[in-house]
Amino acid sequence: MVWLLWWFAVLSTVIHAVRGEGVTYDGRSLIINGQRKILFSGSIHYPRSTPEMWPSLISKAKEGGIDVIQTYVFWNIHEPHYGQYNFSGRRDLVGFIKQIQAQGLYACVRIGPYIESEWTYGGLPFWLHDIPGIVYRTENKPFKFHMQRFTTDIVNMLKSEQLFASQGGPIILSQIWLWLFKPGVPWVMCKQHDAPDPVINTCNGMYCGKTFAGPNSPNKPSIWTENWTSLYQTFGEEPNMRSAEDIAFEVTLFILKKGSYVNYYMYHGGTNFERTAAAYVITSYYDQAPLDEYGLIRQPKWGHLKELHAAINQSSEPLLSGENITFPLGPLQQISTQYNTRSMKSSQKFDSLENWEEYKEVIPNFDETSLRANTLLEHMNTTKDASDYLWYTFSLQQNSSNAQSLFNVVSLGHVLHAFVNGEFVGSAHGRPEDRSFTLQNVLSLNEGTNNISLLSVMVGLPDSGAHLEHQFAGLYKVTIGEHEDKDFNNYPWGYQTTFDAPAGNDPLALNLGSMGKGEAWVNGQGLGRYWVSFLTSKGNPSQTWYNVPRSFLKPTGNLLVLLEEETGYPPDISIDTVSLIQL
Ligand SMILES: *C1O[C@H](CO)[C@@H](O)[C@H](O)[C@H]1NC(C)=O
Ligand SMILES: *[C@@H]1O[C@H](CO)[C@@H](O)[C@H](O)[C@H]1NC(C)=O
Ligand SMILES: *[C@@H]1O[C@H](CO)[C@@H](O)[C@H](O)[C@H]1NC(C)=O
Ligand SMILES: *[C@@H]1O[C@H](CO)[C@@H](O)[C@H](O)[C@H]1NC(C)=O
Ligand SMILES: *[C@@H]1O[C@H](CO)[C@@H](O)[C@H](O)[C@H]1NC(C)=O
Ligand SMILES: *[C@@H]1O[C@H](CO)[C@@H](O)[C@H](O)[C@H]1NC(C)=O
Ligand SMILES: *[C@@H]1O[C@H](CO)[C@@H](O)[C@H](O)[C@H]1NC(C)=O
User: Fold this and answer.
1) Fewer CB atoms inside 10 Å of the end CB: C or N, the chain?
2) What is the 3-state secondary structure (H, E, C) of 391-448?
3) Does the structure show a pLDDT above 70 at 150?
4) pLDDT number for residue 200
5) Domain boundary assignment for the chain
6) Per DSSP, what are the bridge partners of residue 31?
7) CA distance 391 to 371
């Protein structure tokens, strides 16, 4: 979701218009090849599912009355290292758009390049952080240089594949940063009430039917770019349930107020695989959308909206060309749709202990570290996003025996596990709404040398907020003593970054209900971060099941690897099949 835009860096949508052909607009609607359209669009993000899932997701969207598939372009998965592009597998943007085209739908491509979207670092590659003098999302020379380079490369790639509507392709809309381009092309902009001509201001949110004041000129159509089908979920939160009726009512109201384009955010949310989720965001993304995380049809949401789309499409003639007419539909119009519920059935247990091997991470001591600094280093700038984990270590000379000392550590993100002389002494973590947290312990220190090792863990990089390039994570303040007598902020610290990722037809899910916090891989494919021990206010884990796409598995000999930071019980893990039960 894009909540906020800076005035100097306006996220905009280009409508692909070429000499009266392709796509134009007027005060009523977009006009495609000379025809007015009421368009229903659904967000499906290609890296949040697998290429094997795309055809079925798109065909279920089409069957549900969706005309346009909208996606962001995710810069940091395409250019993880400066100048080295990757468009393979889940990163195959062109393959995804060609699949949309093959099924006869339109595409809306939001290039960003800053996308927010609960995606780690808002889609920006972390290496941007080390470009001298960079300030993100501003009229900043180095930032503009890299954005322009990436955006141009993407547009050229899509052009060379003939994917824009003006070339006969499916892309009717695209969003780019306004100041990269010369005026003279029509634009769309979300959440900007004073959009300058010819930019079209649009609405994002749940209740645009009620809240959107409309376009700021009679020559612009009314467009709802992000109609949120529920809300994303963070660890510690219960799922957000938005009813089908609530969505359908708002959509109808918006159309009746001359809206002509509605995008459902998300139509299929999918999975934040590997380490792609932003800070504290769970791997399951908008599971409550019309297509659930596994690509299954969620009823009654999917069916209710399908009927609504059909009804509006049937009335589109009078809606689009009539002059403010009212006509009765008769009493008791009813939408009849199916209801279903989802069932998870255990298909394989991992309860034979001889199949598990355990490797214990060696807790590094100061003497064994090679990266040294006389100060506390910022977490993200030290790991460069190559890992979630950073060890902070120091050694402390204690002159008296039986010393009981109050130990106080303040961290700005996100989790901390503390060890003294190889023994675990405590953990603490922050929350999405309050990243700062304190770990306090009374320590028994040895006379002589004591090894203090603090494991700082991030649960995704932030994706929003001012001055993203200056945001701070990791240890902030370390003191020992009742009155914080001894301050270790400017003290010799040793650092180590660790834990590199190790190398039927029903959807599958890994049930990690017996585990604590960590990360999971199947055959080297990252399922994402799990955090079952972080309970909601109702005492439930925010997420127990983790999507395992069939394409990650071999027929036999699959390897499941878990990195557990707490004390999980692996024998109770199971692979469950996910299926629907009609009600
Ligand atoms: C937008 O999405 C919200 C949340 O799912 C829904 O309640 C509302 O009816 C939708 N409105 C439109 C116009 O799509
Ligand atoms: C109604 O739906 C059909 C089939 O999807 C589509 O071709 C047509 O453009 C739609 N009409 C309008 C006015 O959007
Ligand atoms: C591109 O990404 C894929 C999938 O993650 C990976 O296997 C491959 O090694 C990457 N290619 C390059 C050239 O980095
Ligand atoms: C339709 O016309 C009526 C009567 O002129 C007016 O009050 C109303 O605001 C109009 N509605 C729209 C949606 O333009
Ligand atoms: C980030 O780390 C680099 C070294 O990789 C260093 O040159 C730079 O000063 C650091 N930036 C900040 C803000 O600490
Ligand atoms: C212990 O004594 C050494 C040497 O006198 C001193 O440098 C150090 O700060 C003392 N440690 C503590 C914890 O007081
Ligand atoms: C502290 O670490 C050093 C280097 O690893 C080790 O030789 C020493 O035994 C450790 N001391 C304690 C008390 O664990």
Assistant:
1) C
2) EEEEEEEECCCCEEEEEEEEECCCEEEEEECCEEEEEEECECCECCEEEEEEEEECCE
3) yes
4) 64
5) 7-339, 348-359+492-581, 366-482
6) 24, 36
7) 10
What class does CATH assign to 348-359+492-581? mainly beta
What are the pLDDT digits (tens) for 260-305?
A: 899 999 999 999 999 999 999 999 999 999 999 999 999 999 999 9
Distance in Å, CA 114 to ligand 5 centroid: 22
* Residue 467 burial (C-beta neighbours within 10 Å; 0-12, 13-18, 19+): exposed
Taking CA atoms only, the protein residue closest to ligand 7 atom 4 is 367
> Which residue has the least CA distance to atom 3 on ligand 2?
313
Do 7-339 and 348-359+492-581 fold alike per CATH?
A: no
Q: Give the best-scoring range by mean pLDDT among 7-21, 347-361, 441-455.
A: 441-455
**Number of the ligand closest to the Cα of 255:** 1
Q: Is 427 in the pocket of ligand 5 (CB under 6 A)?
A: no
Q: Which atom of ligand 1 is nearest to the CA of 247?
A: 9
Confidence at 327, pLDDT banded by 50, 70, 90: low
Taking the centre of ligand 6 as the mean of its atom positions, its distance from the CA of residue 376, in whole angstroms, is 21
Q: What is the DSSP letter of 24?
A: E
Pocket around ligand 3 at a 6 A CB cut-off: 86, 88-89
373 lines ligand 5 (CB under 6 A): no
Distance of CA 84 from the midpoint of ligand 3 (Å)? 10
Q: Which ligand approaches the C-alpha of residue 310 most closely?
A: 2
For the domain with range 366-482, which CATH number is right: 3.40.30.10, 3.40.50.10190, 2.60.120.260, 3.10.580.10?
2.60.120.260
pLDDT in tens, 414-445: 999 999 999 999 999 999 988 899 999 998 88
